[in-house]
Write a structure and sequence with these properties.
Elements (H helix, E strand, L loop, with lengths): L2 E5 L2 E4 L4 E8 L7 E7 L6 E6 L5 E3 L7 E5 L5 E6 L8 E8 L13 E2 L3 E6 L1
Parallel strand pairs: 2-11
Antiparallel strand pairs: 1-3, 3-8, 4-5, 4-9, 5-6, 7-8, 9-10, 9-11
C-alpha cells in the first residue's frame, strides 16, 4: 500500500521559517516527480515546488527565492524548506508524486497524494 505522509506544518510568524517533509512508504521517489501543492482558504490548489526524477527542481514564482525543494539520498523523503514566510503562504500543503521522471503542473497528473499538513502564517 502506497502512502505519502506530510509533516512539519504549524503556525509561524511572518518572516519565519518552516521545513515540511513528505515521507513515502510502499514506493520510493526514484525516477519519479514529486511536487508540493497548497490550497489556501479561498484558493484552488496550486503547485508550489517540484523535483523531477533527475533531481531538477523548480518553484512557482510566488515563492521563488524563499522556498526550496529537495530529496534525501534514500529517495523516500522530499522536503520543502520555506523562509521569509508571508501570510499568503497560509494553507494546507500536500505532497504528490507521479510515475514519471518529468513533472506536471496539474494536480490531475499526480497519482499519489498525502493527506496534507497545515501551515498558518500570522502577520
Amino acid at each position: 500500500q502506497v502512502q505519502l505522509v506530510e509533516s512539519g506544518g504549524g503556525s509561524v510568524q511572518a518572516g519565519g521559517s518552516l521545513r515540511l517533509s513528505c515521507t513515502a512508504s510502499g514506493i520510493t521517489y526514484r525516477r519519479k516527480c514529486v511536487a508540493w501543492f497548497r490550497q489556501g482558504p479561498a484558493n484552488e490548489r496550486e503547485w508550489v515546488a517540484r523535483i523531477d526524477g533527475f533531481g531538477g527542481a523548480s518553484t512557482t514564482d510566488s515563492v521563488k527565492g524563499r522556498f526550496t525543494i529537495s530529496r534525501d539520498n534514500a529517495e523516500t523523503t522530499v522536503y520543502l524548506q520555506g523562509s521569509s514566510l508571508k501570510p499568503e503562504d497560509t494553507g494546507m500543503y500536500y505532497c504528490a508524486a507521479r510515475d514519471s521522471y518529468g513533472c506536471a503542473s496539474s494536480q490531475e497528473d499526480y497519482k499519489y497524494w498525502g493527506q496534507g499538513t497545515q501551515v498558518t502564517v500570522s502577520s
